[in-house]
Structure formats: structure tokens, C-alpha cells
Write a structure and sequence with these properties.
Elements lengths: L10 H18 L1 E5 H18 L4 H8 L5 H14 L8 E8 L6 E7 L2
């Protein structure tokens, strides 16, 4: 099935959830979530790191339209994106950590690769 996963939410709820999770990932370095959500977060996070690597004003505006906190955008442009200047993708890692106790959903940790 091409395109994005729906994750059982409407499009505006899904976008808000992904914005929050990507912001949290940039802020803290890793997020614990389900595997399917982690795969969607990876797509968005890597897209915005690639945009931030350009470093110009237009790139900053594009990232500001998605990431919810200004200080996280500054961290992305000043710390995170320059550290990946020699890489073309593969900025995140997804590690499966087993099943969630309540509903047996497959859990994972998504983190920024150093």
C-alpha cells in the first residue's frame, strides 16, 4: 500500500502526533513508541534533517512550519544537521524492544545516530 500509514487517526490528528514526536526526537535524541509510528517518525525526521543541512533562511522557514518549538529548530540547525554533513540519509535508528504489556503492540525505540 503506497503512501503514508494512517495509524488509526484522522489526517489532522496524525499530522499533530507526528509533529510532536519529531520535535521530541530532536529535543531528547530518542523516543519510545510502536514500530509503525517509529517508521513514520523516521520518514519525517530524516526529511527535515536533510532540509536543515542546507542551512539557509528558506530551509529554516520550512522546518519552523513543522517543528513546534523554536529552541528545537535552533538545536537542529546548530547541532544536529552539521553533525550529519558528510552523510546522505540514515540519520535515525529503530531498535525493536518487544511487546507492550497491555495490548501486545510491538514497541521500538527510535533514536538519532551519533
Amino acid at each position: 500500500m503506497p503512501g503514508t500509514r494512517k495509524l488509526g487517526r484522522t489526517s489532522d490528528q496524525r499530522k499533530a502526533m507526528l509533529r510532536a514526536m519529531v520535535t521530541f526526537l530532536y529535543e531528547n535524541g530518542k523516543v519510545k513508541t510502536t514500530v509503525t509510528r517509529a517508521k513514520e517518525v523516521r520518514n519525517m525526521a530524516e526529511k527535515y534533517i536533510t532540509i536543515a543541512k542546507k542551512g539557509d533562511l528558506n530551509a529554516r522557514r520550512q522546518v519552523m512550519a513543522f517543528v513546534t518549538k523554536e529552541d528545537v529548530v535552533s538545536k537542529l540547525f546548530n547541532d544536529i544537521a552539521p553533525s550529519y554533513s558528510d552523510k546522505n540519509g540514515g540519520y535515525t535508528r529503530i531498535t525493536k524492544i518487544g511487546q507492550r504489556r497491555g495490548d501486545a503492540a510491538e514497541m521500538a525505540i527510535i533514536e538519532l545516530v551519533k
